[in-house]
Design brief:
About 35% of the residues lie in helices and about 20% in strands. Strand 9, helix 7 and strand 10 form a beta-alpha-beta unit. The relative contact order is 0.17. Bound molecules: dephospho coenzyme A (2 copies). The site of one dephospho coenzyme A has 14 residues, from helix 5 and helix 10.
Length: about 300
């Protein structure tokens, strides 16, 4: 079956400065240590248990880096900035990116919504008119290539227009990953459109929209999960499509579907996952608080790779 290679293979040669909102967590510390070992770059940790009196002054980080969780060699790459609480951590980390002191924003041990609120603040300048969306890339033995699933964690109940934007963000991300013509499946629970299941109507409209917009893109929808990911299941259902059994992107109808699929792949399929928010001016690494250090690191590496300096 498939190979769990995509995440391991393509390392970036560039180094970055990561602003981490919420640094005082074991898995975050482990992620940072591994990232330093992989020479991904420098880390500004907003909130860390063993922080000293380091402050943001006039938008600049001042003070000396210190954190007993890190070895002396690691401390060269880490600066800990004390914060009041999770909101403060999120705001200061976003400010560090806004002022150019860091080039990638990372959710550490703070609630996703705290960080997203900061990113969405107009005055933070991290977004333009585009819709921001969450994107997760999975790799697991039962599937033969990386699988992008969106939106698992940001847009709660996207309407048709939002789903268009979410799909466009995913296509752009897929291309940055080297997938020029991603095959896209718009998920629902059935293949027939029905007014009783509004996601089927949206999916059919999305197929139509992208067929007109980019005729070379291969799309399928509405489609249930089985026919989307298994050619045999699709054939049983009488569906002939080059997307069936081979999608690069799954667009889910709502956050509940996406969240359940995300957690199911991680817990039942032992998937490696990297996730981020796209559509913003700088990429934002968003992993679930319960993600392992390994998957947090995967998210960092994936995002770093998609940033062309
Ligand atoms: N992209 C761009 N702008 C947006 C987006 C978006 N996805 N969402 C909202 N905005 C803009 C609005 O246009 C408005 O200008 C401003 O941001 C505030 O909009 P609200 O009031 O609708 O947004 P919030 O702050 O109430 O909610 C935005 C969140 C992203 C925080 C919210 O959608 C949310 O909580 N999503 C789920 C996050 C979550 O809990 N994930 C973890 C579990 S999966
Ligand atoms: N339990 C008891 N009575 C019910 C139920 C129920 N779950 N659903 C409908 N009824 C009764 C109503 O009270 C009414 O008397 C009669 O049945 C018809 O009601 P409608 O018109 O609302 O029901 P239908 O026939 O239009 O729809 C019922 C379905 C179960 C067919 C409908 O809900 C549906 O299509 N569900 C999705 C099924 C599906 O596609 N599954 C496969 C993919 S997962």
């Amino acid at each position: 079956m498939g190979s769990v290679k995509f995440f391991d293979k393509r390392q970036t040669n560039q180094t970055h400065i990561f602003a981490v909102a919420g640094g005082s967590d074991g898995a975050v510390t482990e992620m940072v240590k591994q990232a330093i070992e992989k020479k991904l770059g420098r880390f500004l940790l907003f909130g860390g248990e063993k922080s000293t009196n380091i402050k943001m002054k006039n938008g600049q980080v001042t003070g000396i880096p210190v954190a007993t969780a890190y070895t002396e060699a690691e401390q060269e790459w880490v600066t800990v900035i004390p914060v009041e609480n999770a909101e403060d951590a999120a705001e200061q980390a976003a400010l560090a990116v806004k002022t150019g002191q860091a080039d990638i924003l990372v959710k550490g041990f703070v609630p996703t919504s705290s960080l997203l609120h900061q990113v969405l603040k107009k005055e933070m300048g991290l977004r333009d008119s585009r819709l921001l969306s969450h994107l997760a890339v999975f790799e697991f033995p039962a599937y033969h290539k990386p699988l992008i699933v969106t939106d698992c964690a940001m847009n709660i109940a996207p309407d048709f227009d939002a789903k268009c934007a979410i799909t466009e963000n995913a296509i752009e991300a897929a291309r940055k990953m080297g997938i020029e013509q991603p095959k896209i499946a718009f998920l629902s629970a059935v293949e027939k459109t029905s007014a009783k299941m509004p996601s089927t109507i949206d999916a059919a409209k999305l197929v139509e929209y992208f067929r007109e917009k980019e005729p070379t893109l291969l799309t399928l929808g509405p489609v249930a999960m089985d026919a989307a990911i298994s050619k045999e299941a699709a054939q049983h259902k009488g569906i002939e499509s080059a997307v069936a059994g081979d999608p690069d992107i799954l667009v889910v109808p709502n956050i509940e579907t996406g969240n359940v699929l995300y957690k199911t792949l991680v817990y039942f399929a032992q998937a490696k996952v990297g996730s981020m928010v796209v559509g913003s001016k700088v990429p934002i690494v968003i992993s679930s608080r319960s993600d392992s250090a390994d998957n947090k690191l995967t998210s960092l590496m994936l995002t770093a790779r998609m940033v062309r300096k």
